[in-house]
Amino acid sequence: METKSQNIPSILGKFGEEIYEQIMNGESPSIKIPQRGKSNVYFDDEEKVIQLGDKFSKRHFLNVAHTKKFMQTVLVASYCRKLVEENRHAGIRELYYALKHTVEGSKENTFDDQAESNPIIEDIETTLDILREELNLTADRRGYIYGDIVLKDGEDEFNAAKLGRGGWAVPGTVEDIEFLNVNAEYILVIETAAMCDRLIEEKFTQKNNALLVACQGQAPRGIRRLVNRLHTENKLPVYVFTDGDPYGWYIYSTLKQGSMNLAYLSKRLGVPDSKFIGMTMDDIDEYELQKVTEKLKDVDKKRINEIMDYEWFKHKDWQEQMKKCLKLGVRIEQQALANKSLEFVAKEYLPQKIENEVFLP
Amino acid sequence: MSETKVKHADEIFKSFKTQSVSEFFKKNAAMLGYTGKLRSLTTLVHEGVTNSLDACEEARFFPDISVYISEVGPEHYRVIMEDNASGIPLDYIPHVFGKMLAGSKAHRNIQSRGQQGIGVSGAVMYSQVTTGKPTEIVTSTGDKVINKVNIKIDVEKNTGEILSRETLKNPDKWRGTRINLEAKNLQYNRSKYSPYSYLKMTAIANPHTRILFVEPDGTKILFDRNVRNIPKHPKEMKPHPHGTSADDILTMIKNSSATRVRTFLVSEFTRVSAKKVEEIEQISKLDLDINPKKVDWEYAENLVSAIKQISFMAPPTEGLIPIGAESVKLGLEGILAPEFVHTVTRSPQTYHGGIAFIVEAGIAYGGGAGNNGLDIIRYANRTPLIFDQGGCCITEAAKSVDWKRYGVKDDNAPLTIFVNLVSTHIPYTSAGKQAIANEEEIYNEIRFALMEAGRSLSRYLSGKRRAHEKLTKKKTLLRYVVETSNAIGNLIKSEDKSKIINALTDIVEKKYDFEESNDGEEEVTAALEENSEEEVSENGD
Asked: Is the bond into A322 cis (omega within 30 degrees of 0)?
């Protein structure tokens, strides 16, 4: 919402004008794009989020290795300008299909795969410092929210605790969603839908006054932005509950401090104050779950070593978790708690941890 | 007693007839190239053409040679060969065309096309033994008369025999020689072993020559002159002491007027000084002041073994006349019209310790080069070697080169490899004179020459590849111009998209025009850039 005031068409227009000027001056046209990925991110100690560095790539039309991408970039930019001006929205897959055609006088396609158009959208976002949402682009919805919150989406107002056991599926773009009434003390983000369903069935929401958010794997942008907004706008604490393995921990990390790929959005997507509930390696002893652990595979170990090196995992508590994980050679899933009993997670595990504040940072 | 009477040697040798060289030939025609129907025809042409080329060279004329082949009957052809050389005086006609080993160069230490001097009389002989007919010679030295004779070879006497003779007027001052013969057991086609290939190869290595060839079906082919200078005539050279045998020494003594071995050595050999003779004396412990006529086999052998222990200066090479890299290049270009030619003339070397030789090599790529793939054309003293390709040192050396290293992708590449071995003594593998023996020094020189040419070819091919890549890149860029320009036009809400298209097209065109006129470094940096990821800059703004 903070960027709503920006005049998107004029930003895109200015971007085009710069290229136009280069061409008219007979210069080799190029676009300067901030680099994304590990080589150009750093952990911002003050903001506690992953931030984009200041390395740029130059995309030259005259370099045949760049030519196609250059063309794709201006193609996507001009399409977005049209979308915004016509006040229409398109999914990122729709954008791909809308722009896919044969390049005049050749057998080549403008795009061969959506995997080509998606990064171009991110290029434009970073280059012009505007959000995909502001370009009227939406992503497929994944993840849902359940709990006592009244939302307004367009013309519709509804309570997310009264939509049945499926909750409300969170769209890719949540900028326009309004929070009319929030009756919850905290947000619990859960890795798997199965665990979230378990908690819904156990009436965890009602008993603990919590909002449940299932991210279904790595949290999509819609979910992350929703959690971020609920946290900043309604001051709700965020707790994250994932499997006890490097992938689950990384889901937490992304929710907390953003991701490398979307580092330019970390401040809008991350919740640096969020806390990690579990699963932890300590849970295995604490709850006597030794029998229900899974053995680590080589790729899992490799992944642990990787994330141990990330600056934002340097906290000693996390380092200890990883070391312990490697030492034990096992991982522990959320649903392993069912070994105690189905309601164990809802009645004992989570309430106790939250009450006693047994968190990892 | 009479039955057991011992025969006197004279009696035994009464029946021993000295076999004439001609008779020897008749029985051993195959050895001299008259084997197989096609090969025999090519050999006939070869003998005539070689004779003409030598004659023209000696007389310092630009050779104009015509070869007509026509079919007379089944496996029966007429071959007419005409040149514009100095002509042959009447008295010498039987000598030139009728006597084996009559060549003026036999037994001389000189670079020559034909070496053993059987030459054109062999052609007369072959005609005679297959048809029984004489050969017609028409020749004039450019004076008032033209002599027209029919000649046969008296096989037993090894002499030419004029059967009939005519004197014609020569108002146009025609000069030259025309041989007209018929022969059987022949076949004509255009294969690798044909007169056609032979003449084409001859034209390449003798670019100062013009050859007109008329095939049996009437097709006229002109291999035109590509060079405007006549090769220097090779000089006779004294033999180098290394590479001399005891037998050679005894032969040389016969022709020498020296009165002491000491002077014989200095006067008959090259690179033998008085000081070197002293060395020979010390090592051999022979008396070098005896009359050479008294030298016997044992003495000669001792002499040779002493000589072998002494080092001499390398033989002089002014007697060797290479075609010259430039002329080979013009020859290859003129006849094959290839895309690329590189030729090399190496500096003189020796083999067997004392025989001087020069290797010339050339590579022609693309155009008319190659013969549905790799074609190795071999020459000895610029005479084409057509047969026995497999057993030849040139073939082996050429095949030993790893052509892939030089950008030749496969065996089907249009590549002609030219090698000419120049020497006073070509080490043929047999009397057929079609393959060169595998002498290590020669083999290595051929390899070096080809590798040098190969490096140049490699540069050409990679340049060609680069140019091709450049063209592809330009095309790629141009393909995206319209799409990109339209998108930019839409982005800035411009109606005049053709303006952007034109400007962007200009930028692309300019980039490639600029690169074309600036090869080398410019291209290298461009190539690096193109292969790189999008370049990275820090603190760009």
From this structure: no
Which residues in chain B have their CB less than 8 angstroms from residue A29's CB?
504, 507
Q: What is the mean pLDDT of chain B?
A: 84
Question: pLDDT at residue A317 above 90?
Answer: yes
Strands A238-241 and A275-278: parallel
All structural domains of chain A, each given as residue ranges with its CATH number in brackets, are: 8-138 (1.10.10.10), 144-356 (3.40.1360.10)
Q: What is the percent of chain B with per-residue pLDDT over 70, rounded to a whole number?
A: 86
Q: Do B479 and A105 touch (CB under 8 A)?
A: yes
CA distances, B128 to each of A132, B133, B183 (Å): 99, 5, 8
Which DSSP string do the residues of A48-60 spell out, in sequence order?
Answer: TEEEE-SEEEEEE
Q: Which of A35, A58, A77 sits opposite B491 (nearest CB)?
A: A77
- Token look-up 């053409």 returns B49
Asked if B508 has any chain A CB less than 8 Å from its own CB, the reply is yes
Q: Give me the pLDDT at residue B3, please.
A: 53
What does DSSP assign to residue B18? Answer: P
* Chain B residues within 8 A of A68 when measuring between CB atoms: 480
Chain A neighbors of B480, CB-CB under 8 A? 61, 67-68, 70-71, 103
Stretch B504-526: mean pLDDT, rounded? 60
Does residue B532 sit at the A interface (CB-CB below 8 Å)?
yes
CATH top-level class for B21-223? alpha beta
Pick the CATH number of B246-308 from 3.10.290.10, 1.10.8.50, 3.40.50.620, 1.10.10.10: 1.10.8.50
Give the CA count within 13 Å in the CB-facing half-sphere of B164: 6
Q: Do B500 and A61 lie within an 8 Å CB cutoff?
A: no
In the predicted structure, residue A229 carries a pLDDT above the cut 50:
yes
Quote the minimal CA–CA distance from A100 to chain B in Å: 12
| Residues of A with catalytic roles | 97
- Give the B window 2-21 contacts with A, CB below 8 Å: none
As a 3-state breakdown, chain A gives helix, strand, coil percent values, each rounded to 5, of 45, 20, 35
Name the architecture of domain B325-459: 2-Layer Sandwich (3.30)
Q: Which of the four pLDDT bands, split at 50, 70 and 90, describes residue B13?
A: low
Contact flag A63-B491 (C-beta cutoff 8 Å):
no
For B85, the 3-state DSSP assignment is: coil
The 10s digit of each residue's pLDDT in A107-126 is: 888 998 888 998 999 999 98
Query: A134-138, A302-306, B18-22: which range is least confident on average?
Result: B18-22
The model's confidence at residue A5, banded by pLDDT at 50, 70 and 90, is very low
Give me the residue from B483, B530, B537 closest to A58, CB to CB: B537
What pLDDT, on the 0 to 100 scale, is given for residue B15?
Answer: 54
Which chain B residues are within 8 Å of A27, Cβ to Cβ? 507
Instruction: Tell me the shortest Cα–Cα distance from B396 to chain A, in angstroms.
Output: 45
Q: Which band of pLDDT confidence, cut at 50, 70 and 90, is reported for residue B521? A: very low
* Nearest chain A residue (CA) to B497: A20
* Interface ipTM > 0.90: no
Number of H helices, E strands in chain A: 14, 17
